[in-house]
Specification:
This protein is of the alpha/beta class. The protein folds into two domains: 205 residues, Rossmann fold; 101 residues, UDP-galactose 4-epimerase, domain 1. It is built from eleven helices and 13 strands.
């Protein structure tokens, strides 16, 4: 089997590439050309001479460059396509709405247009987001809940989400949305709140920093583990018919709870080390976003097992080791 992954250098993309390589896939990643060649989440595999250039390949392109994308896909002729790339930081999308929509919304359209011309077209998965529901009309949300985004990122994802349905129903593509709720890991980017917390807890424990500055700690999230989510993404493309699936734990926690678990793991009281700053507040905070993954449980046989406390400990342990090495 041959798979293409956009966003392969990100959290989900790197875990998915590991998952597929372990199952004997040939994996092709789309990466943007930049001034640095450092891709720490993939270094282990890129430096493995038994894999890189044999079953793992990286190709330079961009979601705005239709010509190079078409050329790469025509040459590879993949069996599966996992579209994980895009500007995915919700708060940042208020600052850079145009580029967020260009990459997240129009980038998906460009890929779908290319895939409709490939014969046979690969099975396609789009990593959608709980942010399409924004301010939901019901909670928990399922695959039939109306979209109601309240951020530029959510609006861009809603556009892409609906396009996948259009190309599935009108063009006959095997195209699916994995509507992902928050999922974290030690590979989460450092500008996301969970990783900010895990890094701070580790740094304060080691005595190399004194405090953590946050916005709202009462924001509520349905948090899962990224390694379990990429497993579900793969399962979606193994189904006999294309469908959309909610991927979520069905449990909600506050930022305060995650912070408590992280600091307790290293024997600290978060209250003594956290300061609040309004500039880290979102313009609007999503409410009642909790996913109903009954369809995924029933049809994919997928049930997330890692608790938020376990996830927080895993992330803090990773950052402890990393900071010790750099220190």
């Amino acid at each position: 089997m041959r798979a293409v992954i956009t966003g392969i250098t990100g959290q989900d993309g790197s875990y998915l590439s590991e998952f597929l390589l372990a199952r004997g896939y040939e994996v092709h990643g789309i990466v943007r050309r930049s001034s640095t060649l450092q891709r720490p989440r993939l270094d282990e595999y890129v430096n493995d001479q038994t894999l890189y250039g044999k079953r793992l390949f990286l190709h330079y392109s961009d979601l705005t460059d239709t010509t190079s994308l078409r050329r790469i896909l025509s040459r590879i002729q993949p069996d599966e396509f996992y579209h994980l790339a895009g500007q995915s930081h919700v708060g940042l999308s208020f600052e850079i709405p145009e580029s967020t929509c260009e990459l997240t919304a129009m980038g998906t359209l460009r890929i779908l247009e290319i895939l409709r011309d490939i014969k046979p077209a690969p099975r396609f998965l789009h990593a959608s987001s709980r942010e399409i529901f924004g301010t939901p009309t019901i909670s928990p949300q399922n695959e039939d809940t109306p979209v109601n985004p309240n951020s530029p990122y959510g609006a861009a994802k809603a556009f892409a989400n609906q396009l996948v349905k259009v190309y599935r129903d009108s063009m006959g593509l095997f195209a699916c949305n994995a509507i992902c709720y928050n999922h974290e890991s030690p590979r989460r980017s450092e500008n996301f709140v969970t990783r900010k917390i895990s890094i701070a807890a580790a740094g304060i424990k080691l005595g190399i920093r004194k405090e953590l500055v946050l916005g709202s700690i009462d924001a509520v999230r349905d948090w899962g583990c990224a390694t379990e989510f990429v497993d579900a993404m793969w399962r979606i493309l193994q189904q006999p018919e294309p469908r959309d699936y909610i991927l979520a734990t069905g449990r909600t926690h506050t930022v305060r709870e995650f912070m408590q678990y992280a600091f307790e793991h290293v024997g600290l009281n978060w209250v003594e080390h956290v300061r609040f700053d309004q500039k880290f507040q979102r313009p609007i905070e999503p409410e009642n976003l909790r996913g109903d993954a009954a369809r995924a449980h029933r049809e994919l046989g997928w049930t997330p097992k890692i608790s938020l406390r376990e996830l927080a400990a895993m992330m803090v342990d990773h950052d402890l080791e990393r900071l010790k090495r750099t220190a």
